[in-house]
Automatic annotation (TrEMBL):
SUPFAM superfamilies reported for this sequence: FAD/NAD(P)-binding domain (SSF51905)
Residues in FAD-binding domain copies: 5-306
Residues passing through the membrane, by range: none
GO molecular function terms listed in the Swiss-Prot or TrEMBL record: FAD binding
Domain of life: Archaea
Record's protein name: FAD-dependent oxidoreductase
Length: 420
């Protein structure tokens, strides 16, 4: 078995598999190491709600046969209101989607090793030159890429990422049949992806219903374990309890039944990223902290980061005289901030402020969105300060003051931890 490659990738999720696709298309020798067994892939890592939009499908050549349901609209719900935006999308069968990425890369020459748990970097002269997996197995590459998600065994040991517990988001999702998709008194969710802001269901987060055809849908919730969650959460409730509570109290689920084997759990970190690379190394996908779990369309962000890393690796590997040093891999950070997460700071602040707002403010937000043009929401999603300002009201002064205090406390906490 070969133990030397141009690029070694840890993780066969959307980021890692897309990076491999792009690299083998350029003619490089690539190996992808994946923890799960091939026969079960992707069982444990099948974590995404898998909502996406035509831009992702077209940009990465994703076939229609991995789509469960094409959708026509995005619906935002609050406890008493809702807002509908006409926007084409697709709900993917995430397992089929991930297997397509693997098989497509394999067809072009990428090597995949399943049952291969990456444990540590191999260092020489202060630089990573390979990885160990399954205890004592070794593989070497000119460039190593960590696409393992929040576990980040390589990025953490190299000091590239510093994932904070207070920024840890967790999620759970089931697939159901028997859902009342067009229930009187609620928005029509036929051919729609719905996101709900409601602290009774997801304190400091959001919940969702993604229609997957007839009376079936993906149903789940996610929240960040930070101050907003602490303010609105119940001491005796786990994330499973919140999902059960929603299922028991929302009449749309009165006759719903879980589809066997369709349960997904996942996690990510919602914080501004630090470094994304070092000598001979890049971190991609959910290994890098996310910035915008509500609006960010995570699949596309992972795919974009994989593509940016592949382009960066190519910029070094195609020239014999160019070493993949941190300085020469700097282009990855430029591409990431330009294409994957533009206006990262303002979008992160918008996300944090959104989750801090009380339920009655969510109701007013839905009313505001109905009177504003669709461009306001789109531009606010991109982090435009003027668009974000148009979503605020004079009555938000106490909320903004509380938000400012929360940010100050976080900044002081960071300084104190550095001082220790």
């Amino acid at each position: 078995m070969n133990d030397r490659y141009d690029v070694v990738i840890a993780g066969a999720g959307p980021a890692g598999a897309q990076c491999a696709r792009d690299l083998v298309a350029r003619g490089y020798d690539v190996v992808v190491l994946e923890t799960e067994a091939e026969a079960e892939f992707p069982r444990q890592s099948n974590k995404s709600t898998a909502g996406t939009f035509p831009s992702m499908m077209a940009a990465f050549g994703i076939p229609d046969d991995v789509v469960m349901q094409f959708t026509d609209s995005v619906v935002l719900e609050s406890p008493m209101e809702h807002y509908v935006r006409e926007q084409s999308g697709a709900v993917l069968e995430f397992a089929d989607f991930k297997r397509f990425l693997v098989n497509d890369g394999r067809d072009d020459g990428a090597e995949y090793r399943f049952d291969a748990r990456v444990t540590a970097p191999i260092m020489e002269g202060g630089e990573i030159v390979g990885v160990t997996y399954n205890g004592d197995e070794e593989v070497y590459g000119d460039i190593v890429i960590d696409a393992t998600g929040p576990s980040a065994p390589l990025a953490k040991k190299l000091g590239v990422v510093d994932l904070k517990r207070e920024n840890h988001a967790i999620g759970i999702e089931y697939e159901f049949e028997g859902i009342d998709i067009d229930r009187p008194g609620f928005a029509d969710l036929r051919d729609a992806m719905m996101l709900r802001l409601d602290h009774e269901i997801a304190p400091g987060g959001y919940s969702w219903i993604f229609h997957t055809g007839e009376d079936t849908a993906k149903v789940g919730l996610c929240y960040i374990q930070n101050g907003s969650h602490d303010q609105y959460s119940r001491d005796d409730f786990t994330i499973d309890d919140y999902l059960s509570h929603w299922l028991e109290t929302d009449p749309r689920f009165q006759d719903a039944e879980r589809i066997e084997g369709k349960q997904h759990r996942g996690s990510a970190h919602i914080q501004a990223p630090g470094a994304l690379h070092t000598d001979r190394f890049m971190a991609i996908g959910d290994t890098v902290p996310s910035l915008d779990p509500l609006w960010g369309e995570g699949i596309n962000k992972c795919m974009q980061s994989g593509r940016a890393a592949a382009a960066t690796a190519d910029s070094c590997l195609k020239y014999d005289s160019v070493e993949p040093t941190a300085e020469n891999l700097e282009v990855y950070e430029t591409l990431w901030h330009r294409d994957v997460a533009p206006n990262a700071k303002s979008r992160l602040l918008m996300t944090q402020l959104l989750y801090l707002a009380p339920n009655d403010r969510y109701d007013r937000l839905m009313q505001d969105l109905q009177r504003l043009d669709d461009d306001t929401l789109a531009e606010a999603n991109k982090g435009d300060p003027l668009a974000i300002a148009r979503l605020l009201e004079l009555e938000d002064a106490p909320l903004l003051a509380r938000f400012a205090k929360q940010q100050l406390d976080l900044d002081l906490g960071s300084l104190l931890s550095i001082g220790r």
